[in-house]
Design brief:
Pfam families: Hydrolase_3. The protein has 290 residues and is α/β, with parallel strands linked by helices. It contains twelve helices and 14 strands. α2 runs parallel beside α12.
Length: 290
């Protein structure tokens, strides 16, 4: 009996315009109306995803930053797993030496030290989602989307590490050369047993505390509701979704998902640009006669 649905955002619930389609919104609300819990499980920070949910009129709890911070629908923190400051500083030094653009996601939101590079990275993401989108148009769309997001631009990431009032939850590094351009730093970071490295796209790696994983966070949230994992459904497309795809009794890979996600999931749905997430939800509700 399906009781809880967890969905990734980028490449899953969001379409090529980086919004939740009307079809997907209707499917979410249909499930909620039938008493099925819905939770977003994303690599994004709260301030990045909340405007998208508000725009769609969806209210739900959030597993954010790959599980580093779990928040209920009222904004109350349920759990957190930050990266220790000393370790965060080591990663920052490593990435700076490698000459990579990266962002630091904190308890105060997403922090960037280069606005132009952030827009360029977002534009490349839009272009990768829809190859028909010219890069110049993608840059314009990215710039407009940035206005909806509360991004903190800082001069020096070390200020974040040294501020006792700020917790660092995730560090994301990007490379225009894809995973090959990130392999060297991946190997260096993987030497730290207290960290986990995932990816939400072909051109990035995401670094979290080992306890900040979508699967662990989803398991904890389901336990809070006394819901067995056999009654949990998860949906995702990229490798930071793998832990929750493996742990849920019902799991869906998007048609645009990585090979690893498709192999781990027990169901396949259509692309994120074809309302795949909403179709997966409706498929399960139909099977239940709802």
């Amino acid at each position: 009996m399906l009781q809880l649905i967890a969905s990734d955002m980028d490449g899953t619930m969001l379409n090529d315009h980086m919004v939740i389609s009307d079809y997907n919104v209707a499917a979410i609300k249909h499930a909620q109306e039938k008493g099925i819990h819905f939770i977003v499980s994303t690599g994004r920070a709260f301030k990045e995803v909340k405007p998208l949910l508000d725009q769609a009129g969806v209210s739900c709890p959030l597993i954010t930053m790959n599980g580093a911070l779990v928040i209920d629908e009222n904004g109350k923190t349920l759990s957190s797993a930050p990266i220790p400051d000393q370790l965060a500083q080591k990663i920052i030094i490593l990435l700076k030496k490698a000459g990579l653009y990266f962002e630091v996601i904190t308890s105060h939101g997403v922090c960037s030290d280069d606005k132009a590079a952030r827009i360029e990275n977002f534009a490349e993401l839009l272009s990768s989602i829809d190859a028909t989108t010219p890069f110049k148009l993608a840059v314009s769309l990215a710039s407009a989307r940035m206005e909806l997001m509360d991004i903190n631009y800082v001069d020096d990431y070390y200020e974040l590490v040294n501020d006792p009032h700020i917790q660092i939850f995730k560090i994301v590094a990007f490379s225009p050369h894809g995973q090959a351009g990130l392999e060297k730093v991946r190997q260096e970071i993987s030497k730290y047993d207290s960290l986990v490295i995932t990816s939400s796209g072909s051109g990035n790696i995401e670094v979290n505390h080992i306890k900040a994983q979508k699967g662990l966070a989803l398991q904890s949230y389901a336990d809070r509701l006394n819901i067995p994992m056999d009654n949990v459904m998860s949906m995702g497309d990229n490798n930071n979704d793998l832990s929750m795809i493996k742990i849920a009794g019902i799991s869906y890979a998007m048609e645009n998902a990585t090979k690893e996600i498709k192999m781990a999931a027990n169901h396949l749905t259509s692309k994120n640009t074809d309302n795949g997430a909403g179709k997966a939800i409706e498929e399960q509700l139909t099977q239940l006669g709802l």
